[in-house]
Amino acid sequence: MSLLILIIIFTAVGGVLSVMAAAVFLLLPDHRRAAVLPHGISFAIGALLAVAFWGLIPEAFAQIKPEQFQALSGTILAGVLGFFVLEKLLIWRHCHSGDCEAHGDEDEHEHDRGHSHSHGMAKSAGALIILGDGIHNFVDGVLIAAAFLTDVHLGIVTSLAVAAHEIPQEVGDFAILLHSGYSKSKALFYNMLASLTTVLGGVLAYFGLEDLHDSLPYFLALAASSFIYIAVADLIPSLHKKTDMKTSLQQIALIAMGVLLICSLHGIAHNMEV
Fold first, then answer.
1. pLDDT digit string (tens) for 40-56?
2. Fewest CB within 10 angstroms: 189, 207, 216, 243, which?
């Protein structure tokens, strides 16, 4: 079997398998899923921040020379600010199409505008998580292809490690998309679509790894900035709606669990790749 076919098969396994495993979350009854969803948001915050700070950013800096550190840091900063602007545009587009600035009774208008604004923010968070996940999965595909081009056995192990590493993050992505108002079918469709960028990254890396290698750290930096922005700007503020001690402790514990699980899986994956 040709190396290209192996890369296509195992990048598909690395991307799609993790989505299908995480999709079990969608099989829960509506009332059970509604009860689990807030906990999933807390877990997702920890997972997203851990992927960014424990995995993507260190990996990006490890692949560049010291004189490029400032440029890479600037890319992360530009990414965070860029996603802020993108979210503003998405919210503005939603409000414009929904006439959230229409004239009318002031109190009623303020209520409708607030509702439309909140809904627009939720929708934009969903759009950003799909975009960020697509970039992240593309980079995974490049890494899997690079491993296969080094050694077939290493490629197989790396693709399985990527799948295992992605499952908890994909569960968090489903939670975010459902929280953003996506239906179960749309959440599955968009997550599956984002997972296919793993195959795209693998195929492009096979044909031009030399050219992609120089830009790979900057893809990693953009993926990290999207995850940081989503966690800090969109998800953490939603946790402040409930401030009682029991809920706050649960949120902190679940965020810590998301961080610890991602860090543990990242360590396992690194040991397997070595």
1. 788 888 888 888 898 88
2. 243
